[in-house]
Structures are given as C-alpha cells and as structure tokens.
Amino acid sequence: MARESVKARERKRQALVDKFAEKRAELKAAGDYAALDKLPRNASPVRLHNRCQLSGRPKGYMRQFGLCRNMFRDMALAGKIPGVRKASW
C-alpha cells in the first residue's frame, strides 16, 4: 500500500487540476502562454498519475475500474464488482 502522504498529494493535485481546468482552457484557446506559465505547476493534468482508489498503488492500474490488479482480483472473487466473474471453460 502507498503511504497516506502520497495518496494525499495525488488528491491535492487532482483538486488543483479541477480548480484551474476552465481557466487553462480559456488561456490555451486565447494562446496566452505567458499567463499559462504563471498557473501552478500542479494545475496541469499531465502531472497526475493514475492510482488505485483503495490501496494507492501506481502500477497495474485498470482504468475501467479505477483499481490496481490486486484489489480488482480480491473484489472480483468476493463478488463486489457487478458483472465480473472468474472465467472457466
């Protein structure tokens, strides 16, 4: 599991991206790159990293579910993800 500080940092970045999204779009459309430069660096969506919502794990992330492969497997086997069953043939 990721440290709580790492998960908190990622949540903080996400909040900044959401806060400045509209302003960034306006400045980009206007071509005002000098003003874009003055926005906080963490307001850029490029600086976000996909992390598991439960464990905070950065690798093995499944975008469709927002979980890492480990948490996905545990939840799927416990029947907590609708429509997901273990394959058998």
TrEMBL record:
Upper classification of the organism: Bacteria, Pseudomonadati, Bacteroidota, Chitinophagia, Chitinophagales
Quaternary structure, from the entry: Part of the 30S ribosomal subunit. Contacts proteins S3 and S10.
Any Gene Ontology CC annotation: ribosome
Entry keywords, A to Z: Ribonucleoprotein, Ribosomal protein, RNA-binding, rRNA-binding
One family name in Pfam for this protein: Ribosomal_S14
Biological source species: Chitinophaga horti
Protein name as annotated: Small ribosomal subunit protein uS14
The family this protein is said to belong to: Belongs to the universal ribosomal protein uS14 family.
Entry superkingdom: Bacteria
NCBIfam families, per the entry: PRK08881.1
Biological role: Binds 16S rRNA, required for the assembly of 30S particles and may also be responsible for determining the conformation of the 16S rRNA at the A site.
PROSITE patterns: RIBOSOMAL_S14
